[in-house]
């Protein structure tokens, strides 16, 4: 038998029997039976084994399965000891889905695809050795975090660590062209190159002049942003990692750009094929001024980026539209276009109902909370990366007159359920920060110099979380309740404090700070002012954090002093991605949003349906596993808002809606039909609560379909 010739297996049938109630009960034991059958019928007969760890390492090296460099940094005795220790932990998958996902998508296989070369202990071993970079103590610490599933590297990192033939370890990229053909051409090449090496690509189009604008004094010469979007879409379709995955990208446009309506029209169901973009995602950057105009039911003006840049001396994205709006309206030298603010708001909501797009980035909210000198102008494919950028200036020969800074994302996630059991919260976080730091230190994206420059200056990472709803259900906490908000606030405060401390210690040890640290609010200490104080915990939440040190006012003051003295190594540290297949391997709910189904139904490409029960689903936890589709999204926004205060980047917030909304969920509704008003209210509520971005709107229809059921394969963790 081999992996290509599996016959008469029973695990799919056993797993599917979860969906057939017995005497009104969910037969969860069938999933455990499927898990056992999977190992007996699939894994064990097809796992290539070796007499010793040394023999296995030699085989993997000789056959070019793993890299020599990182292995040579360790004695084989240590590698053997660490491997033996990992296997002694007796790791057990808790669901069939978890095991199936790991062996299908992450385990190393022979070149012919016939046999497995790794169990999860082996993949963890490679990750620990690779990211520790020869530091045996760190390798042991990382192995501990990974085997106990307190830490999960992003999919590109976990999958590729140590492999000889691999993609990049980073998750996604952000680039921006300016308003000239050299820059546009260079950005198309950058999109091709970045899509080739892995990860989704975010592109900011707000700086480009609108359709019908002048070019060298000729009226109506410019074609606008839509043809450029088509160039990017074709680039991603062509550059698809040798067919292994579809290239993926998102284009962002300012809500005050004259092409905004044409931009949104590219995703409409009835759009002409000449303008329709099928695979490219859409995002809109929204300043505070827009919300004000919508509230006032006022007219709004859209401004020509060419004129704005000519007058202000910076690209359109770098002008503060909220503070400059009235001046720009009054300036006769800026060409402008007139629409009704609520008409545009209606178009955005209608498109979100149809397709789930556009993503929303509350750009002023993001910048007001930003401790870093510079301006955030866009986000990434999943809307959680919010970092400052500077534009590049190109010569006619496509060389750089001025090399700007663009962004690469290095992501990882804490598992809330398991991290709350850690014997040492601070040590756990420190190990995670060091693993992510290895990636940023060893990321050399030479083909896109602005990405390389941004990474080398900023050393950014993005540590997030998964399993929040699972943890709530385990502890009988209602998602969105005051207790859940209090827990979220304290948990992310801990992530913030301990990642700051780790970053400061790396800066103290290396003597290296991120570029322009002195211009940040970390340097003058003002960043810490709102955090210095004693956390007031309710009795229930204090019990949950028993044994975990909650930083005191003195702790914050000491950290403030140290950061001001020694600096920070990382410009950015935290970001909450949407999570994908990795959350299944961790056997917890994805990201920090609620589950969508107690028994989730997944359509796998070649195998059909697989059913995945929520973590620890049982009689006592069922009441706390309310589906996101049956939940007031304002409660979800409240949870995200509690985390947002502590996260220096963003959180990938998805809104889950039903096409027919049961009465009683929303107090403003008198009928069940989902309307654009519902989405308008929720977007405005999120803005009011200080949420920086909304990733996606998913609508569950009466026939069981999901509109806008986007599965980002790049930034998922």
TrEMBL record:
Broad EC category: oxidoreductase
A Gene Ontology cellular-component term: ribonucleoside-diphosphate reductase complex
Keyword set includes Hydrolase: no
Enzyme Commission designation: 1.17.4.1
Record-annotated Ribonucleotide reductase large subunit domain positions: 556-578
Entry-linked PROSITE patterns: RIBORED_LARGE
UniProt entry tagged with the keyword RNA-binding: no
Top-level lineage group: Bacteria
Coiled coil regions, renumbered to chain: 327-354
Pfam families listed in its UniProt record: Ribonuc_red_lgC, Ribonuc_red_lgN, RNR_N
GO biological process, one term: deoxyribonucleotide biosynthetic process
Known catalytic reactions: a 2'-deoxyribonucleoside 5'-diphosphate + [thioredoxin]-disulfide + H2O = a ribonucleoside 5'-diphosphate + [thioredoxin]-dithiol
InterPro entries named among the record's database cross-references: NrdE_NrdA_C, RNR_1b_NrdE, RNR_lg_C, RNR_lsu_N, RNR_N, RNR_R1-su_N, Rrm1
Keywords on record: Allosteric enzyme, ATP-binding, Coiled coil, Deoxyribonucleotide synthesis, Disulfide bond, Nucleotide-binding, Oxidoreductase
Signal peptide: none
An example molecular function term from Gene Ontology annotations: ATP binding
Function in brief: Provides the precursors necessary for DNA synthesis. Catalyzes the biosynthesis of deoxyribonucleotides from the corresponding ribonucleotides.
Family note: Belongs to the ribonucleoside diphosphate reductase large chain family.
Record's protein name: Ribonucleoside-diphosphate reductase
The organism of origin for this protein: Pseudolactococcus hodotermopsidis
């Amino acid at each position: 038998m081999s992996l290509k010739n599996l016959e008469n297996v029973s695990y799919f049938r056993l797993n599917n029997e979860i969906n057939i109630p017995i005497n009104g009960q969910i037969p969860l034991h069938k999933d455990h039976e499927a898990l056992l059958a999977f190992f007996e019928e699939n894994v064990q007969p097809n796992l290539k084994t070796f007499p010793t760890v040394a023999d296995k390492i030699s085989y993997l090296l000789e056959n070019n399965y793993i890299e020599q460099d990182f292995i040579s940094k360790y004695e084989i005795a240590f590698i053997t000891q660490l491997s033996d220790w990992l296997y002694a932990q007796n790791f057990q998958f808790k669901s069939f889905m978890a095991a199936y996902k790991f062996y299908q998508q992450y385990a190393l296989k022979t070149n012919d695809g016939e046999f497995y070369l790794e169990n999860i202990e082996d993949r963890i071993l490679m990750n620990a050795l690779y990211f520790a970079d020869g530091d045996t103590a760190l390798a042991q610490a990382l192995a501990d975090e990974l085997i106990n599933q307190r830490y999960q590297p992003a999919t590109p990192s976990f999958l590729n660590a140590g492999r000889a033939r691999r993609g990049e370890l980073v998750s996604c990229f952000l680039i921006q062209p300016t308003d000239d053909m050299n820059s546009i051409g260079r950005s198309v090449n950058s999109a091709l190159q970045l899509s080739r090496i892995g990860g989704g690509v975010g592109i900011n189009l707000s700086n480009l002049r609108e359709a019908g604008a002048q070019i060298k004094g000729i009226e109506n010469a410019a074609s606008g942003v839509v043809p450029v979007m088509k160039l990017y879409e074709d680039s991603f379709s062509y550059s698809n990692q040798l067919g292994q995955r579809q290239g993926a990208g998102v284009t962002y446009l300012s809500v005050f750009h004259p092409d905004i309506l044409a931009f949104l029209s590219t995703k409409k169901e009835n759009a002409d094929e000449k303008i329709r973009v099928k695979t490219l995602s859409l995002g809109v950057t929204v300043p505070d001024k827009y919300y004000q105009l919508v509230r006032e039911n006022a007219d709004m003006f859209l401004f020509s980026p060419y004129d704005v840049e000519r007058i202000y001396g910076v690209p359109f994205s770098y002008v503060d539209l909220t503070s400059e709006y009235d001046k720009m309206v009054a300036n006769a030298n800026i060409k402008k276009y007139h629409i009704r603010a609520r008409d545009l708001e209606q178009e955005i909501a209608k498109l979100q109902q149809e397709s789930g797009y556009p993503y929303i980035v509350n750009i002023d909210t993001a910048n007001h909370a930003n401790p870093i000198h510079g301006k955030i102008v866009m986000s990434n494919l999943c809307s959680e990366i919010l970092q400052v950028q500077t534009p590049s200036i190109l010569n006619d020969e496509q060389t750089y007159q001025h090399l700007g800074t663009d962004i690469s994302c290095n992501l990882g996630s804490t598992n809330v359920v398991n991290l709350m059991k850690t014997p040492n919260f601070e040590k756990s976080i420190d190990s995670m920060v060091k693993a992510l730091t290895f990636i940023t230190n060893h990321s050399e994206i030479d083909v896109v110099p602005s990405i390389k420059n941004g990474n080398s200056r900023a050393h950014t990472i993005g540590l997030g979380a998964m399993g929040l709803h699972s943890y709530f259900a385990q502890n009988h906490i209602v998602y969105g309740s005051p207790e859940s908000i209090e827990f979220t606030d304290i948990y992310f405060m801990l992530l913030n404090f301990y990642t700051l401390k780790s970053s400061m210690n790396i800066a103290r040890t290396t003597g290296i700070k991120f570029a322009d640290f002195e211009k940040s609010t970390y340097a003058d200490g003002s960043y810490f002012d709102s955090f210095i104080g004693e956390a007031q915990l309710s009795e229930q939440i204090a019990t949950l954090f028993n044994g975990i040190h909650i930083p005191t006012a003195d702790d914050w003051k000491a950290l403030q002093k140290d950061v001001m003295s020694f600096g920070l190594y990382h410009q950015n540290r935290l970001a909450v991605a949407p999570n994908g297949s990795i959350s299944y391997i961790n056997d917890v709910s994805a990201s920090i949003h609620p589950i969508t189904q107690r028994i989730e139904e997944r359509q796998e490409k070649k195998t059909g349906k697989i059913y995945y029960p929520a973590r620890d689903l049982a009689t006592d936890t069922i009441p706390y596993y309310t589906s996101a589709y049956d939940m007031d999204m304002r409660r979800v926004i409240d949870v995200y808002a509690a985390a947002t205060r502590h996260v220096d980047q963003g959180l990938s917030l998805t809104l889950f809606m039903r096409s027919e909304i049961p009465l009683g969920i929303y107090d403003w509704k008198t009928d069940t039909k989902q309307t654009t008003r519902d989405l308008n209210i929720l977007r405005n509520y999120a803005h009011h609560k200080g949420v920086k971005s909304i990733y996606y709107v998913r609508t569950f229809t009466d026939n069981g379909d999901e509109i806008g059921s986007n599965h980002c394969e790049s930034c998922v963790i």
